[in-house]
Amino acid sequence: MKRRLLQGVGFVLCGIAVESFGVESSSSASPNEGWTLTSESKDVAIYSRARTGSRLKEFKAIGSIDAPTSAVHAVIDDFENYPGFMPYTVECRLIKRESDSIVGYQRLSPKICEDRDYTLRVWKKSWPGPDGLTYFSRWEPANELGPAEKKGVIRVKICDGGWLLEPNGEMKTRATYSIYTDTGGMIPAFIANGASRVGISKLFEAVRKQVKNPKYALRAGL
Q: pLDDT of 165-197, one tens digit each?
């Protein structure tokens, strides 16, 4: 049962879903920043570090995606269609768009535990480089701007994260994903931390699969 719970809750990470951080143009997780390699495969390396005053860890994942950075960005930006390709995501909607950010609501249904929901504010920027544009986004909770809490749905109140998408040649992207979140509910920290690792791997899988859809290349103008 714990294994099933771990896999289900892990998808709470798969929303639009770091601490509010400055742009990290460096690709690797430096040991002197406190990051420890927790798992590595040919697809993604996942690092973690302790969070002061919390039993929950921060996570950073770095992986290569076989698609141009503009197409990967188009997938990440396709927020309102997340229910069609992000596991356990059942509702996404735009709350408002501002000059420097967007605010969006999301609800996830892991099936084996209570639904989770949250509203996030997302800031985005991009800049040119020798191989194309680099895209950066970061988010933090903005639950006060979204729907009120619902009975039977656990409100996620900690969810700080970000994406850094860097060109690695014309047809590859070096993606860095960072997250610190508390899914809420009566979930022990060791299960929540394990769920984060599982959820991150699944997130990369979902993006890699979705970016093969030709519509994202068209959106990116390729």
A: 999 998 999 999 999 988 766 555 545 545 556
Tell me how many degrees the CA angle 1-189-11 measures, rounded to the nearest 5. 60
pTM for the model: 0.82
> Which residues contact residue 140 at a Cβ distance below 8 angstroms, ignoring those fewer than 6 apart?
20, 120, 121, 159, 160
The torsion of the CA quartet 112, 80, 174, 117, rounded to 10 degrees, works out to -40
For the chain, domains (ranges, CATH) are: 2-219 (3.30.530.20)
Distance separating alpha carbons of residues 97 and 77, to the nearest angstrom: 13
pLDDT of residue 196: 57
| Entry field: residues in the chain | 222
Output the CA angle 195-77-115, nearest 5 degrees: 40
Q: What's the number of CA atoms in the CB half-sphere (13 Å) around residue 156?
A: 29
Alpha-carbon distance of 214 to 204, in angstroms, equals 18
